[in-house]
Design a protein that fits this description.
One of its GO terms (molecular function) is oxidoreductase activity. This is 3-hydroxybutyryl-CoA dehydrogenase. Keywords: NAD, Oxidoreductase. Pathway: Lipid metabolism; fatty acid beta-oxidation. Helices cover about 45% and strands about 15% of the residues. The chain has eleven helices and eight strands. Strands 3-2-1-4-5-6-7-8 form an eight-stranded mixed beta sheet, sandwiched between helices. α1 packs across α2 and α7 crosses α9. It binds nicotinamide-adenine-dinucleotide. Nicotinamide-adenine-dinucleotide binds next to α1, α4 and β6.
Length: about 300
């Protein structure tokens, strides 16, 4: 792939704004277009990126000049067509196959012929997203971890038709972003969620069947296995709805009942107990939720 001069990020929510920040701070001189259909989400992203960059500058993790340059490289738009010159487009919109596919159809028409279309999906098949475009060889999974500016890993997912050139270019881009890369074939849950989500689901079963209290389950995994957060605490951080939808993808995609979601997880989601973002999940959070060891 020729030199990357412009990158588009679609979806300016939690992940998309973090990804745009990572690209702007790591790739000097590269235009970063951040698109969302919701203009409120764009303004929220603009202020959260500014304060995050200012925080990095105040902690001397980024120079004032580099911080100013990164902010100047960022462009916020509600017009998808503004991404027409992007060399690389990273999609980070809502986790719905139908909505993502319809976006990929549009991106396929708008993006230049050489552009690579990457998805930050946690669980949706890259092969199926790719098949909605006329360029399946140039479609790939680029799964950032939450929050993107802090977490070192990118899980690259090769769809059935992803070309070696696309894979090599995506790996090179990930390294330029300062990340460590792992590679997965396109099977449900990829590597990280295939292993993490059944563990979280099992923690729900332990709570559901009265094995122990939520506090002891989390303390057991933190101090007993050196995890920075307990599985129930982590589920609240990720979002219980997100955990449930990934369990359903594993269950349907791998066809094994060992992936059936725990009834307690289903019930919490039905009750709107979605975790930190709702102020209540497995735990209750006040106005000032306790800070996460991931942040
Ligand atoms: N939250 C996590 O821990 C995490 C971790 C890794 C990957 N992911 C994946 O990243 C993606 C985004 O997750 P998030 O947590 O940032 O979600 P989010 O809800 O914070 O943000 C999604 C954004 O997408 C926008 N959007 C929806 N449809 C759109 C469209 N058609 N065009 C443009 N914008 C649109 C919404 O307005 C919203 O601002 C999902 O695929 C998710 O599975 C999430």
């Amino acid at each position: 792939m020729s030199e990357v001069k412009s990158i588009g990020v679609v979806g300016s929510g939690h992940m998309g704004s973090g990804i745009a920040q990572v690209v702007a701070t790591a790739m000097q001189g590269v235009d970063v277009w951040l698109h969302d259909v919701d203009s409120n989400a764009l303004s929220k992203a603009s202020s959260s990126i500014s304060s995050s960059i200012n925080r990095l500058v105040s902690k001397s993790l980024l120079s004032q000049g580099a911080g100013d340059d990164a902010l100047k490289q960022l462009r916020f738009t509600s017009n998808l067509e503004d991404l027409r010159d992007a060399d690389f487009i990273i999609e980070a919109i809502v986790e719905s196959e139908e909505v993502k596919k319809s976006l990929f159809v549009k991106l396929d028409k708008i993006a230049k012929a050489s552009a690579i279309l990457a998805s930050n999906t946690s669980s949706i098949s890259i092969t199926r997203l790719a098949s909605s475009t006329t360029r399946p060889r140039q479609v790939i999974g680029m799964h950032f971890m939450n929050p993107p500016p802090v977490m070192k890993l990118i899980e690259i997912v090769r769809g059935a038709d992803t070309s070696d050139e696309t894979f090599t270019a995506t790996k090179a881009l990930s390294h330029r972003l300062g990340k460590v890369v792992i590679t997965s074939q396109d099977y449900s849950g990829f590597i990280v969620n295939r292993i993490l989500m059944p563990m979280i689901n099992e923690a729900f079963f332990a709570l559901y069947t009265g094995v122990s209290t939520k506090e002891d389950i989390d303390t057991g995994m933190k101090l007993g296995t050196n995890h920075p957060m307990g599985p129930l605490e982590l589920a609240d951080f990720i979002g219980l709805d997100v955990c449930l939808s990934i369990m359903r993808v594993l269950h349907a995609g791998l066809g094994d009942n060992k992936y059936a979601p725990c009834p307690l997880l289903v019930q919490y989601v039905d009750a709107g107990r979605l975790g930190r973002k709702r102020g209540i999940g497995v735990y209750e959070y006040g106005k000032e939720p306790k800070s996460s060891s991931h942040l």
